[in-house]
Amino acid sequence: MITFAAKVETFTNSKNIARYAFGRGAVRGLETLLAARRTTADDFVVFFVDAFFRGRLGSLAFPVRPQDLLVFVETALEPTTDLADHMTANVRKHSAKAPCCVVGMGGGITLDVAKAVANLLTNGGKAEDFQGWDLVKKPALYKIGIPTVSGTGAEASRTCVLMNEKKNLKLGMNSEFTLYDQLILDPDLTESVPKEQYFYTGMDTYIHCIESLAGSYRHPVGDAFSHEALRLVSEVFDSNEMMALANREKLMVASYLGGCAIANSYVGVVHPFSAGLSVVLGIHHCLANCLVMNQMQDYYPRETAHFKKMLKAQGITLPSDVCRGLSDGQMERLYQSTVIHERPLTNALGVHYKDTLTLRKVRELFQRI
Length: 369
Ligand code: NAD
Ligand code: ZN
Description:
Blueprint: E1 19-22, H1 30-37, E2 45-50, E3 69-73, H2 81-94, E4 101-106, H3 108-123, E5 132-133, E6 143-147, E7 161-164, E8 169-174, E9 182-185, H4 195-214, H5 220-238, H6 245-263, H7 270-281, H8 285-293, H9 301-313, H10 328-339, H11 342-349, H12 353-356, H13 359-367
Parallel strand pairs: 1-9, 2-3, 2-4, 4-6, 5-8, 6-9
Antiparallel strand pairs: 7-8
Helix pairs in contact: 2-3, 4-5, 4-6, 4-8, 5-6, 7-8, 7-10, 10-13
The structure holds nicotinamide-adenine-dinucleotide and zinc ion.
C-alpha cells in the first residue's frame, strides 16, 4: 500500500537565480544582455559599481552609454537604509522614467545596494519598511549581478543586508523579488582582490554552510547545495595557492551555491555574534565572521579547528584584542544586537537559546575576540 501524507506540514516554494553566465571573459557578454533590454532610444541603465573599478572599466569594455547613470559605490562602510534611500532618490532625479535594467558589479556591499534600489524603485516607500521577511510586495526592476569577490553568496541570495542605524539593527529585505534575474560569473574579476579580503569573504561561504548544516531547520536541497559548496571551499583554502585561477573559479561556484543554500536554510551562532560586532564596532561582515569563527570551539568544535588550519595554511593573521577595554554599555549593546537574531539562534540552539546564551556567556565570548 502507498501511504501519502495526510497534510502539508510546511510548504516552502523555493526559487533560485533564473540565468547565469560563467567563465573567463563572461563580463564582456554584458553588452549583449543590455542591448536586449534597451528597446527605445531613451532607455537607460543604472550601474552600481564597486569604487575599486573607478578608472578601470575601460579595460573591461564596460557598456555605459551617455544616457546611463553610473554610480561608484564606496565600501568603507557597510550600506545603510539611508544610503539605499539616497541612491534611489538619485535614480529618480536622473530620469522620470524607470531604468530598463539595474546592474550591480562588486562585492556584497555593491550587490546589495543594487538589489535594494531595484526593490525601492518599483515599491516606493523607504528601505527600512522592507527589512524583514516577505515585505516587498511588487517585483523589482530587472537586474543583473556581477560579483567581483567571492563568498557572501549575495549574488544568489534572496536578501540584501542593510544597517538601520536608528533601530540598531542589521537586517535584509528577505524576498523572492530581491533575487537577481541574471548573473555574470567571471573569475578574472576576482584576481585583484587583496589576499586578506579574499580569505575573509571566501570564509563567509564556509560559515554559512557549516551553520546551516548544523541547524535544526533543514532542507534536503539546501543541504545538497551546502555540502557541495563546503567541499569546494575546503579545497580552495586547504590548498597552498588559494588565489590560483582554478581556485578562484571554484570559490566563485562555491559562493553561488552557498547563496542558493541560504535561501532554503538559516545561519547559526556565528552570524548573530558577527552582526553584533558590525552594529556596535562597525567591523565589516566577513572579517567579523572570521573573528567569531575563531572562538567557536564550544559550538562548532570540528569546524573551528578546520578554520584555524585554513588560516594557518593561507598565512592570515586575524586582528586581536578587538573587544578589549569595552565599556559595560558597549557590552550590553553587543549582547542585545546578538540575541535579537531569533531565527538563526533558534535554528542553532533551540527556542530557549537565551537560557544558555546569557549576558555572561556572550560577554565572555566577546572578550576572547
Ligand atoms: P565588500 O563589498 O565589503 O568589499 C570588500 C572590499 O573588497 C572593498 O574594499 C572592495 O572595494 C574590494 N573589492 C571588491 N572586489 C574587488 C576586486 N575585484 N579587486 C579588488 N578589490 C575588490 O565585499 P564582501 O565581503 O563581498 O561583502 C560584504 C557585504 O556583503 C556586507 O555588507 C554584508 O552584510 C553583505 N552580505 C550580504 C549577503 C546577502 O545574502 N545579500 C550575505 C552575506 C553578506
Ligand atoms: Zn554571511
